[in-house]
Specification:
Pfam families: Acetyltransf_3 (PF13302)
Strand content: 25-35%
Number of helices: 6
Distance between the termini: 30 Å
Structural class: alpha+beta
Protein name: GNAT family N-acetyltransferase
Strand order of the largest sheet: 1-2-3-4-5-6-8-7
Order of helices and strands: EEHHHEEEHEHEEH
Organism: Streptomyces galbus
């Protein structure tokens, strides 16, 4: 049993989540070369303009058309700047579950944008697409990404031992691979009750460095 997600855009108070466009290539390449993105993801490094263009024009749209998931470019509503990306992948259309990954550009960290984008995607996935489970996996030392999962109501289910290869810089400044554990988080539709209200209580969205 397979399906495809519709080619849509999602709007929040501060963000627009939309398909990637050719005009995003330069900003995407810059974001993906950030040291924290290199450390916690498996993107090529250095991440070239050609890598970005291949993602924007080929890989990202193919995720949706092949039924595997959907990729959103996250942009700031007021400026249209590229804030980051949210990627729903490994969609299981029978179980109605998917896995989510996300990245936030260095300039946009500390504004709660990751929580806002991830929450909006989860609400769309559950309410509009009738999915029943969302899964996130965070590297054991990626505490900022774990904070995002906690903020939107995810439940920690356990640890996948030695399941990921992160990267760290050695004394000479060269990147080297390091094996790490993954923490598995899940979100079900009922977990979202009251989350949006809690995120916007007080002084607005939570402030911390967020990336994945």
């Amino acid at each position: 049993m397979t399906g495809t997600f519709p080619n849509v855009s999602i709007s929040t108070e501060r963000l627009v989540l939309r398909p990637f466009e050719d005009s995003d290539v330069d900003a995407l390449a810059e974001m993906m070369n950030d040291e924290l993105v290199v450390a916690w993801t498996s993107v090529p490094h250095p991440y070239t303009e050609a890598d970005a263009r291949a993602w924007v024009t080929g890989t990202a749209p193919a995720e949706r058309t092949a039924g595997r998931g959907i990729v959103f470019a996250v942009t700031e509503f007021l400026t249209q700047r590229l804030v980051g990306t949210v990627h729903l992948r490994n969609a299981d259309w029978r179980v109605r579950s998917a896995e989510m990954g996300y990245v936030v550009a260095p300039w946009a960290r500390g504004e709660g944008y990751a929580s806002e984008a991830v929450l909006a995607t989860a609400q769309w996935l559950f309410h509009d697409q009738k999915f029943e489970r969302l899964e996130l996996r965070t590297a054991a030392d990626n505490t900022a990404s774990q904070q995002v999962a906690q903020k939107i109501g995810c439940i920690s289910e356990g640890v996948l031992r030695g399941a990921w290869i992160a990267r760290t810089k050695d004394e000479g400044g060269a990147w080297t691979d390091v094996r790490t554990d993954l923490i598995v988080w899940s979100l079900l539709p009922e977990d979202l009750e009251g989350v949006a209200d809690r995120l916007t209580d007080g002084d607005g969205y939570p402030s911390y460095d967020d990336w994945n």
